[in-house]
Write a structure and sequence with these properties.
heterodimer, A: 30s Ribosomal Protein S19, Chain A, three-stranded mixed sheet, B: mainly alpha, 6 helices, elongated, structural constituent of ribosome (chain B)
Chain lengths: 92, 125
């Protein structure tokens, strides 16, 4: 079920501070965050976040289209490269 | 025969049923259209007057997104997800279920027909 509108989008508060600080400093640094559950807000557009996937911080350049999605959607936590071709198949 | 919204030619079925042959019109919208134009539910498509057909056509053109337009919209939405690089987009790219269903078994609609694993022996007794 979708989240109630009256609550507004969910964002971990410290992200706002981090984003503001990064904007103020002017340098285009990767902002490391763990909060994959936070919604991407319009004021994050243009910034680069390093979203933790349990292993690494994957850089996510926030564009306008991403607003409304969650950070976690852009940082996959599983790796699956496909099944290797079976050795037995070649023999038989 | 009646042509409504492009290529669709519903047959001598009831109007509420015939309209569903149009992509983007299901039970609810077919019902709505009939109620709005005050067409009785028992009326069949070949019993409609030209005037009524015209009215249906105009209503669908103005109120509903249907056929090509709708298909394009759906395709655009999927394309947006794929270009964005978000999880749902990746699933679309891979041709796997998008909404968190299991893929250990099943998911055959998305994955297509089962492909035998080469060299895997069948269990024999």
């Amino acid at each position: 079920m979708a989240r109630s509108v009256w609550k507004g989008p969910f964002v971990d508060g410290y992200l706002l501070n981090k984003a503001d600080a990064s904007r103020a400093s002017g340098r285009n640094e990767v902002i490391k965050i763990w909060s994959r559950r936070s919604t991407i807000l319009p004021q994050f557009v243009g910034l680069t976040f390093g979203v933790y996937n349990g292993h690494k911080f994957l850089p996510v350049q926030v564009s306008e289209n991403m607003v409304g999605h969650k950070f976690g959607e852009f940082s996959p936590t599983r790796t699956f490269t496909g099944h290797s071709s079976d050795k037995k198949a070649k023999r038989g | 025969m009646a042509r409504i919204a492009g290529v669709n030619i519903p047959t001598n079925k009831r109007v509420t049923i015939g309209l569903r042959y149009i992509y983007g019109i299901g039970p609810t919208k077919a019902e709505q259209i009939c109620q709005q134009l005050e067409i009785p539910a028992e009326r069949r498509v070949n019993e409609l007057s030209d005037d009524e057909i015209l009215k249906i056509r105009e209503l669908i053109d103005s109120e509903y997104r249907v056929e090509g337009d709708l298909r394009r919209e759906v395709a655009m939405n999927i394309k947006r997800l794929m270009d964005l690089g978000c999880y749902r987009g990746l699933r679309h790219r891979r041709g796997l279920p998008v909404r968190g269903q299991r893929t250990h078994t099943n998911a055959r609609t998305r994955k297509g027909k089962a492909v035998a694993i080469a060299g895997k022996k069948k269990a024999t007794r």
